[in-house]
Amino acid sequence: MAFFVSTSLFIFLAFISSSATACDRCVHQSKASFFNKASALESGACGYGSLATSFNSGHLAAAVATIYKDGAGCGACFQIRCKNTKLCSKEGTKVIVTDLNKSNETDFVLSSRAFRGMAVQGKDQQLLKLGLVDVQYKRVPCDYNKSNLAIRVEESSHKPNYLAIKFLYQGGQTEIVAVDVAQVVGSPNWSFMSRNYGAVWDASRVPSGALQFRMVVTAGYDGKYYWAKNVLPADWKNGVIYDSGLQITDIAQEGCSPCDDGTWN
């Protein structure tokens, strides 16, 4: 079967090297605060909704625009530790980005559970009282216990024309930067999908029948195709999560010099 590259995917592949950051795994210095209620992150800009609390035992975070990346950073994982050695552990805590942080004071606003997770045993309440702490952080791979990448059909979808989907359980240290959809049966006529907001992609020209997807996924300097050949059945339903059959495990390349601004030791 011939595999044609749509205009949207071709453009992304052509410019991956210029847009990818070489510093995702470098150590950065900033501050972090926390939300009193987890519901603040459930309704976050990534659009995960109540599913967010099932990610990473509720260790979630809102991240600044440079990390959020207009939604491409949704689902990214970071290891964060506070620099108060009397209250905080050396390991810190791992968080998943589920929202956009619009604050100019901090790079991250954590769920209270994640904020407490930075503390040494018995010091979590003292840490919460501080409210705002100096932190170091670095991007790390996401691990969903070998779960496949999943696609959730959003409630706003309606046949025969409009489809909105959300990607879940995106492993490794990657970003999905382009998506195409086509029918499974016959010669595929690929239609590009646009990022609606956060982790949600949509298309107003959706073929009938069972659907397949292909994505351009970046990891550091590199970008490559992932092709999920038979994902949505012909009778796909809104609100249902479908298994893509793919696992994404790529790790972004190291490239901290000259932008390394800290040491993780």
Biggest sheet, strands in spatial order? 13-12-9-10-11-8-7-14
- The radius of gyration computed from the alpha-carbon positions, rounded to a whole number of angstroms, is 19 Å
Largest sheet: 8 strands, antiparallel
Separation, N- and C-terminal Cα atoms: 50 Å
Q: Segments where pLDDT lies below 50 for 5+ residues?
A: 1-22
Can you describe what's shown?
The protein is mostly beta strands. The chain has 5 helices and 14 strands. Strands 13-12-9-10-11-8-7-14 form an 8-stranded antiparallel sheet, covered by helices on one side. A 6-stranded mixed beta barrel has the order 1-5-2-4-3-6. Strand 12 (211-219) and strand 13 (222-232) form a beta hairpin. The longest helix has 13 residues, at 7-19. Belongs to the expansin family. Its main location: secreted. InterPro entries: Expan_Lol_pI (IPR007118), Expansin/allergen_DPBB_dom (IPR007112), Expansin_CBD (IPR007117), Expansin_CBD_sf (IPR036749), LolPI (IPR005795), RlpA-like_DPBB (IPR009009), RlpA-like_sf (IPR036908).
